[in-house]
Amino acid sequence: MNATPQPIAKAKSAPQSAPESALVADSTGTPAGGKTTIADVVVSKIAGIATREIPGVHALGGGAARAVGLLRERIPGSKTNLSQGVSVEVGEKQAAVDIELVAEYGVGIADLAAAIRDNVITAVERMTGLEVTEVNIAVTDVHTDADDDADDEAAEPAERRVQ
What we know:
By secondary structure, the chain is α+β, with helices and mostly antiparallel strands. It contains 4 helices and 4 strands; from the N terminus they run αβαββαβα. The chain has one domain (about 35-155): Cation efflux protein, cytoplasmic domain (Alpha-Beta Plaits). Helices cover about 35% and strands about 20% of the residues. The relative contact order is 0.16.
């Protein structure tokens, strides 16, 4: 028997909600075109990379996040966490970004924050099509050259007391 295949009728079911880490973002606005899903981690990585591009940003994250990041980087084969210090909320058409960072000493913090805000908004909107409603920036510390000297001294092995 040579029957032509019939299209399978789609059963109507209750809409399934997307997991929190994969909320829906659709820049097309047309349901017939399908749905584009952008995970929170995608937006946070874009924002993290855009933040690191700005001169005057020493590191992202608070003290505990940076300590864990340093430990992670010492593991062979591990990669830098590009979303460290960045948290986001992603909706269907909008995103909000919170950034925690350490600034270099001598940089104007207000100018630094404005440059970061502009770069993050441009990158996220261009790459995802989402409207960025806000970019909150918390400067948790200022990095100085003395901080590097203290790190170098701590990294040097102590003089041996026995031979």
